[in-house]
Amino acid sequence: MFPIVQYQPLRLITQNTLSSTCLKIMFSRPIAFAQTWKSWLSSHSLMGNKNIILMGPPGAGKTTVGRIVGQKLDCPVIDVDDDVLETTWNMSVSEKLQDVGNEQFVEEEGKALLKLSASGSVISLTGSNPMHAASMQHVKQNGLVVYLDVPTAVIMRRLKVMRVDRIVGQGPGVSLKDILQFRKQFYKRWHDIRVLCAGDSTAEAVAEKVLDAVKRYQNSESETFISTRASRSGNSKEKDSAKYFGDVVTEGLAPDGGLFVPENGLPKLSAEEWQSLIEATYVERAQVILERCIHPADIPASTLGEIIGTAYGENFTCSKIAPVRHLTGNQFLLELFHGPTASFKDFALQMMPHIFAYCVPRSCNYLVLVATSGDTGSAVLDGFSRLRDADKQRIAVMSFFPEDGVSQIQKSQMIGCQKENAWSIGVKSDFDFCQTAIKQIFTNSDYTGFLTVEYGTALAAANSINWARLLPQIVYHASAYLDLVHQDIIAFGSPVDVCIPTGNFGNILAALYAKMMGIPIRKCICASNENNVLTDFVRTGTYDLRGRRLIPTLSPAIDILKSSNLERYLHLIASGDGQLVSQLYNQLENQGHFQLQKELLAKVQQDMVAGWCSEEDCLAAIHSVYSTTGYILDTHTAVAKVVADRLQDRTCPIIISSTAHYSKFAPAILRALRIAEIKQNPLSQLHLLSSYSPLPPVHGGLLETLRRNENEGHQICAADMSVLMSHIEALIQSHFM
Hints:
GO molecular function, one term: pyridoxal phosphate binding
Strand order of the largest sheet: 8-9-19-14-15-18
Oligomer: single chain
Number of helices: 32
Pathway: Amino-acid biosynthesis
CATH class of the largest domain: Alpha Beta
Pfam family, one: SKI
Number of domains: 2
Cofactor: pyridoxal 5'-phosphate
Keywords: Amino-acid biosynthesis, Pyridoxal phosphate
Distance between the termini: 58 Å
């Protein structure tokens, strides 16, 4: 037996203890700890008096893996089939199933498991145990449930070899594949930890992964965040000053003005683990990837699964969520506009509000501030308006957008997305002013302190400066690659390029993060419009705002000169040198420019190439693609298409991010397609576009929003910090007081 120690509860999780009576089943030949675990286990008990509970479908290898884990930890091993069910029933499992039938068997199995009382053991469940809620609640009270997640196709091959053609719960007319898929909902509900098991993984390798996963679960304090501007003095941090996922979601911006990043970087999945996701749905891929990026102490796996299911449910108009469509030649479109507000922002902002509501303390009200260049506004308003009523009472959102810097349809959509806890404010300036103003408000401790003391309200951010905005974007870049593999366009491991219309650098940064996590992306192509500061930066290493004025274009979501998330990328390539990042951004703030060192520029150019597109070329691309394929690109996707045509070398597929639905930019599309210029309202513009039977169709959700809220108004304010702050205070008084 390994020693019993006090079990440390994880953040936000309360662990209950089970009966003190232990079922002690000693392994016949105790084996010494594996050498790699000796040093760690000599000073720490992996689970103390808790059980490690292995769960998964039949054929996942639970029994064999359980025995190996038990040997490595020198602890009892309990196989529910052999040591619980057959002992209780005095007959074999197959005989019991034949005796009572499918439905009653699950109940009888559950009753037997309810009698189990074990401590400090490795328990291998049956494949059907998770279908009985009461018994799972019972065993979970004193244990950690580890899900051995094996691809369904692999399980079916294994069962065929084992000559198993039917399993518990499989009724007449139900295929083995269907029942295996049906059972996944129960595994998703009960697991604390997921271990991805590739088809060719040995039991020994899976056992090591189980131990690694349990160690990660226990070592929650290792997954901390730091500011991109934090100096690394080498001094140990005070425990209470460490920032965890929930903290950075709540705070948004670091106190020193930097952005939060994981101190130890993002996790990397092996090629085998990525390949196990080829057959998975988008939601399944999202849960696996985000479980690796968010410690279960911050959001338990089951809760995270509920959030993901809510985010990517019926509010997306395409069942594939982010489908990949062939465009022409070696070019593919990643369609990111099937969410409720018709832009890629929905992928983060249908999820982030629920993450935020889970993480923030309930003892305080929160006002979420966001600056938008167009698409973020409607997405953030829609996302936060979908919170539960109780959460809407304590969490509100205010979106600031350039009054004359977004399309008329974008503005109408933002106005239409206003709800009881969500408001839009037009500002008589550009996006850069809105974004800078919000940053200044967050770092004004006197003002934020006043709001907290006077109104019991804290401010939070929902722009891509918030880490919870970036994480969901990693998923769709990874998923797009896996879709190309699934469609037999490429073999896993073959490279692809990605081309992304880029303004604030969040979307392209997510692609770079996906590459870090193991997706074989060769080059990220940064596509700019006439506000091409990023193109110049990638080519020269100079970020220069001197003498630049923002140019309003037909692709307003990337009409940005100060790209916030570039700071996270610089911190990454500078190997976490926060002092250097701080110097660069102080110089940008004070002098309007900075220059990268040669070695850093070389790293940038290893990751990226960049180009820009004129207004004329953007419109020409929309017309050309429609003429040859019948497909309509939005203006931002057209920018990316033009740049991709110029910069790709055609030696591998290129995935172009289609970041918005063309419906949001109807006047520009009508102009590009050389349809008569119209002066009608946004709703009339969409009806005119729809009459041409375009591909894809006009976005129904956008059409409905405009139809429902055609005559609503919004507030407008001057480009003055004191005016913005007075609007914030007035909103707090009206909603929370």
